[in-house]
Design brief:
The protein has helices at 40-47, 69-75, 91-101, 106-119, 135-147, 165-180, 193-199, 217-220, 239-245, 269-277, 292-301, and strands at 3-12, 15-25, 29-34, 55-60, 76-79, 153-157, 185-190, 202-207, 210-216, 225-233, 249-254, 257-263, 281-288, 306-308. The protein is α/β, with parallel strands linked by helices.
Amino acid sequence: MTVVLDGVTIRYGDRVAVADVSVTFPPGASALLGRNGAGKSSLLKALLGLVRPSAGTMRILDLPTDADPRDVRAQVGYMPERDAHLPLLSGFEMVAQLGMLSGMPRRDAWRRAHEVLYLVGLEEQRYRPVSTYSAGMRQKAKLAAALVHDPQVVFLDEPTNGLDPQGREDMLRLVRQLATELGKSIVLSTHILQDVEAVCDGVVVLEAGRVVAQGRLRELTRTAERRFWLRVEPAEAAVGPALAALGVRHEVSGEGRYTVWLAEAAPCQPVFAAVQASGAVVLEFAPQRRSLEEVFLGAVRAEAPVAVGAASAGAAPAGSAVGGGR
């Protein structure tokens, strides 16, 4: 496993920011999802050795649990949420400088700076001062800085923060490429549901410093009942009463559209029989999964944590987000 946390508690004085968190992030792209202030950034800081947990253990890759924070940071890349660039330096100078600070020889740092700036799409702007970059370009520069020393694990803290729709699409494409083509393990900390659905295989949901749901996204969005969208013609056909007569749970959406629920092993034939009995024809009959938004809201309102499959990061509206102030 890429990252393992066992009973981790983080305190700031008397305030408990993270309480008894035990999760495992496997290789690939995983999400750390939660409202602002849920404890996501505190966990990332602890994993980077910037905050010391008051209880519990953490392990990254095959490093021992008591590894020196500098050894940990040599294996990981970190893209912070807030704007972070070196004043007056160009994109190339900033990324190369951070490569040298990580211990790379100057020539290697220069070569890697060119490579990662090309990867993130800043090859034509690499000699411009970062202070003149747009918000999207600064985010890409931060990502390049996180990758310059070729880490195996990359922590991304709100990587689409402040980006317009095109900038968000570009950033998510880069995250997908890192996980699927370049073999990096990604831990994506965010409160934006759409970002998780776009790039992650699994998710850990935090609420008030506690894990309230975890598992692979496909498993978390699976329900005991199957849900289908049904569209029929003509729209005025009495399909609803026919479905009710056959004991099929449904909801009328209007204009010949229905939502239909069937038990996990129940056949679909009663739905088609009801449509035929009403004198209509089926135009569309498509399965629908529970959205991540439904999973999140159900988890944060539930009293007991929800776990599916391995304890790992194992359709909401565009740009859906959860939470308020940080």
